[in-house]
Amino acid sequence: MPKSPDVATVSAAPDPAVPAPTGTPPGLPSVPRLAWLIGPALVAGVAYLDPGNVASNMTAGARYGYLLVWVVVLGNVMAWLIQYLSAKLGVVTGKSLPEVLGERIGNRWGRRAYWLQAELVAMATDLAEVIGGAVALNLLFGVPLIWGGLITGTISLVLLVIQSRQGARPFEFVIVGLLAIIAVGFSVGVFVAPPDPAGLFAGLVPRFADTNSVLLAASILGATIMPHAIYAHSALSRDRFAPSRRPAGGDAGRHEAAQPIEVGRGIPTARLLVATRWDVSIAMLIAGSVNLCILLLAAANLAGVDGTDSLEGAHAALESSLGPIIATLFAVGLLASGLASTSVGAYAGAEIMDGLLHIRVPLLARRLVTLIPALVILGLGFDPTISLVLSQVVLSFGIPFALVPLVAVTARRSVLGRFANHWVTTGLGIAASVFLITLNGMLLWLVFTGA
């Protein structure tokens, strides 16, 4: 069972077969089995398999072979810790990260400035996802890119309506189904044409080749550790385990009221955190494996082939070298990736605005506004793959603004009470933040100095 250093307080969780574990607050009904508590991380994990990931990993493999395998692996390890902390915040406090920060940022203009950068990051995410869906529809059915973008946005709106009207569980089922399609579509090619084991192990050694490899590393990390996934996961956990009833005077936002939260939702917080660790581990294992498969597929089959640093070129090369079935599965995976991830991205954007500014924009209006940048880029004829990779670089600069506050608030007993981070967990979170900020600083220096 996966563990993090701060889980000593919850390691004595009850056995799933025991309906009413010792220490459960009075009035709790029987506790659901562990598997039924899994789901929010799988939805948030779709953000780690969006078209930006596909473009970044395919480009890295086609240009540099196995060189950046270590970036994918390291990014996934850091993502496990980050997503667990986000989910833990939502489970323990009953609030999302934007809500917690909205309460703690006292200055109105500071709160608006923070919202603005978070909203820009969410829009960059949506840009990548809509473009990816449009490219997939073009590859599969020859749909013009701008119409493909509109279709992708419309379908994502339907998925969001399911979430808003039917609740968290049906939305999870739909997204997890798309996740299964993504995993199959992007992974089959690796089994048909396996990578070179020696190259794979050599790629685990951290190193760069040139400025462009640093750019791609930042792009991969921006696509792997998604700022909007940090915001969304806390909200998904909050919504999934929202109290159905609460005693008078209970406040789900304060750790002193942990017992009222448990009584209201019927599940001990400690048990939810056990389920959350499993949830995050499964989601990150799937996301990390698929991302690695994408890079290895390109490294083994597309390295040195002209035109394969674009999604269209990679699709054509896959069809030429591995056959139409593998190429079609790749395009289907790309389409499922765009549809699922843009829905999660739009959900995150709405949560960011509501949590920080206490403004709830109608779903249709918000969806139309966030579609505009992607449709403009598609309409003007910009290269879709380059747009995808650059959007991931924008995301990488938004990571510190989400990650640093997340580590800070989850380390505070005033916020999480006895579930606050162990000092080792906080240290690992700080180390991840320093690494990502350093990489972004290095990238800026290389770009502005022309190195």
Overview of the molecule:
With 451 residues, the chain is mainly α. It is built from 18 helices and no strands. Helix 10 (227-240) packs across helix 14 (324-357). 73% of the residues lie in helices and 0% in strands.
User: Helical amount among residues, as a percent range?
Assistant: over 70%
Task: Report the sheet with the most strands, covering strand number, pairing sense and barrel closure.
Answer: none
Shape by Cα distribution: globular
Q: What portion of the residues fall into strands of 2 or more residues?
A: under 5%
Any low-confidence stretches, pLDDT <50, length ≥5?
1-5, 7-31, 245-258
Helix-strand string: HHHHHHHHHHHHHHHHHH
The SS-based structural class is: mainly alpha
Give the terminus-to-terminus CA distance. Answer: 46 Å
**Count of DSSP E strands?**
0
Please work out how many helical segments DSSP would assign: 18
Rounded to the nearest angstrom, the radius of gyration is 21 Å
Average pLDDT: 82
Task: For this entry, give a set of tags.
disordered N terminus; mainly alpha; globular; 451 residues; 0% strand; single chain
Question: Briefly, what is this?
Answer:
The chain has 451 residues and is mainly alpha-helical.
